[in-house]
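hiii, so i know i said id send this last week but things got crazy w the move. better late than never?? heres the sequnce for the chain we talked about at the cafe, plus the structure i predicted for it. fair warning i was half asleep when i ran it
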Amino acid sequence: GSLPEAFDKYKDKSQKQLHSTLHDVTEKLKTFKDVNKKALDQFNQFTEQREKFRERKEELEKGANSIRDLIRKLDEKKDDALQTTFRMVAKNFAEVFTQIVPGGSGELIMKTSDSPVTAEDDDAEDSGAGPSRLRNYVGVSLKVRFQAGGEVRVMRSLSGGQKSVVALAIILAIQKCDPAPFYLFDEVDANLDPMYRGAVASMISRLKTGAATGNNETQVQFITTSFQPELVQAADKHWIVTHSGMSRIVEGTLEDQLDIVRKNQQTASAETQDNQ
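okay and structure toks below
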């Protein structure tokens, strides 16, 4: 067989010197106790496992980056859709408010914070994603005028009737963007002035046939309860709810409804005089 690499180191020594060296080395080996004779095999095995784990880690990081990229794109699409929809609703709100309040004006404003949306976790920062171009939305505000050249007012400074006008304008503005099959209004005109009630009734009449949205094929049903003549006169069908021990719903006519409205107004007027 082949000679050891250190053969030259011992070839000039005598047999006695070699036995002495061998004895010294043997004694030194005896000082090493509990030696793991499988250490080399285990080292090789763990090295292979480490490489596999490293490859798996790279695959997971690649997958995580792909998911982050997908989330970013979806967030951007969501942001674009939100902005587009809000612009449509804001445009419709301005138009509807002007129709309900002649000479007035209304504006919807999207409120955002000063700082853009950023990555929320350390992993996203480590991936190098950095700040996003997405806006950080915090709410919606509005400004309205109820007469030409009048004071610009915000929601908290409006009266109950004026808030009802604004709420109806927002609902009808959304309806023009994405009409629902039907709407249920429960005395939405109770706090409105007569001029606003007439404007709301006229708007509903146009919306129910799709005329206000430019699509005459789209018909929307409005179910309303009211003790005011304007909405009653704009209705196509009239139903009367009576209560005598139990509630009953019967079909009526326009005259029947107007008669109930007149009686209700007379009763309210009499109660007001009694309180005075």
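btw Strands lie at 105-112, 137-145, 182-186, 221-225, 238-243, 247-252. thought thatd interest u
miss u guys!!
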